[in-house]
Amino acid sequence: MWTFGRKLSVGFALSFALLLLIGILSYRGVDVLTQTSYQVSRTHSAVGHIGSVMSLMKDAETAQRGYLLTGEESYLEPYRSALTNVPRVLAELKPLLRENPAQQTRFNQAATMIDGLMQLHKDRIETRRANGLEAALKTVSLGEGKRRMDELRAVIGQMEEEENDVLRERAKDVESTATTVRAAIVWGTVAGALLVLIAALTLSRALSGQVGTAVKHVQRSSAELQAAANQQAAGARETATSMTEISTTISELLATSRQIADSAQRVVVIAEQTAGLARGGDGTLQSARESIAAMRRQIDLVVDHMLDLGRKSQQIGVVLDLVGELAEQTNILAINATIEATVAGDAGRRFSVVADEIRKLADRMTASTKEIRLQIDDVRGAVNTTVMATETGSKAVDAGARQFDDVAASFAKIAGQVVTTTDAAREIELSTKQQATAVEQLNVALSNTAQASRETEASSGQTSQTATELAEMSRDLLRLVQSQPT
User: Fold this and answer.
1) Is the distance from CB of 127 to CB of 139 less than 8 angstroms?
2) How far apart are CA 120 and CA 114, in angstroms?
3) Using CB atoms within 10 A of its CB, is residue 1 exposed (0-12), middle (13-18) or buried (19+)?
4) In which band, very low, low, confident or very high, does the pLDDT at 77 lie, cut at 50, 70 and 90?
5) 367-399 per-residue burial string, b: 16 or more CB within 10 A, e: under 16
6) The pTM is what?
7) Of 1.20.1050.40, 1.10.287.950, 3.30.420.270, 3.10.620.30, which CATH number belongs to 239-458?
8) Most exposed among 88, 153, 246, 345, judged by the fewest C-beta atoms under 10 Å?
């Protein structure tokens, strides 16, 4: 079933389509008339140019005959004018004939004839000037100029006849187009009037039926609207009460959020102080680590020196072994010398004394070498003990350094945890502040909602009153519609 709006739309659409069709036909007719008028104007211009060419050629022929008979130059003025104007008129005429191939052919033929005639006129004028009247009349008596002029007249006549035929055809086209446009306007107007009349009758009937149905729907809807308005008023009162309770709860939540924000801010301050202390402890541990590293380097240096001392003690032992062997050899030599001195008697007594001194010196050297060896062995033992003690100390230093590294790593972790705690406390502070802001906004929104609920409660009465008035108006409209003829 079509609705009233759809029927109205279809009626207007048909009327618009018909009006558009009339406009299109009229526009096309006017456009054809305009084009035809332009072509007619161009054809008239072509006919005028053709007549001008023929008139100029006649003037040129008459002028040259007058000059041949009289010999006076004043007779040549029309001829000179033709020499100037004929090419111009032909140049203007040529584009006017471009749509007609037959006319173009005749135009080219006429242009050739005109050139021949003008040359013939020129030759006769030159003959008159050079040889006199008799020679000029003799050339005229041959009849060449008349023959050529007759041929030109024939071609020009054909061109004029062709253009006149075109004018008659275009006049018929104009009349036919005008008839079509008049018919389109007349019949389109009649059809439009009939269509509007039918649409008016159809819409009137549809208005009576559909508006009556719509009025009944409005009556039912007004009753439902009145009931809904009463329910809305009750709901608005309940909503206002709930909004008041929620607003109180939100206010308490806002106070709690502010306390949490203050506590979070204090946590941030304490965390920042702890982070500062952790960074200070990390610096102290770094200094202690550097001290242990320096101690380790000193111990390594002592170990190197002790090892060097042991190597030099071994070298001294080797030297002492050589000295001991040298002392024993010297002692043997001294004993042999003493024996030889004793055998020599008085001659070897002095040498015996020297040998005895050398032997005593060798004995003392041997004794000294043994003492030095004992001392070197003591030094070597002390060096070994020192090296072992130094290695033990070095191991202890390494263990202490590792412990310091562990402590430093623990401090670094503590510092990182403190930084994380600080960031978390700041985020908590920021989130709490945002929460407090959101709660404030929510409190404002709830206040606005409560106010809107109160306003809704107040407007529900107005809505109920409006529904009652709407029911009265629908009844009046129903009576008005039903009183119309269907």
Assistant:
1) yes
2) 10
3) exposed
4) very high
5) eebeebbeebeeebeebeebbeebeeebeebee
6) 0.38
7) 1.10.287.950
8) 345
Percent helix, strand, coil in the chain, to 5, is 95, 0, 5
- CB burial of 281-300 (b: ≥16 within 10 Å; e: otherwise) equals beeebeeebeebeeebeebe
Tell me the pLDDT tens digit for each residue of 25-41: 878 877 877 877 778 78
Q: What is the CATH number of domain 4-222?
A: 1.20.120.1730
Eight-state DSSP code of residue 409 = H
DSSP state of 73: G
What residue type is 465 in one-letter code?
Answer: Q
Q: pLDDT value at position 287?
A: 80
Neighbours of 137 (CB within 10 A): 14
Cα-based angle 96, 102, 108 (whole degrees, multiple of 5): 70
Q: Which residues, at least 6 apart from 328, have a Cβ–Cβ distance to it below 8 Å? A: 362, 366
Whole-angstrom Cα distance, residue 272 to residue 276? 6
Q: Give the SS3 label for residue 143.
A: coil
Distance in angstroms (rounded) separating the CA atoms of residues 426 and 271: 10
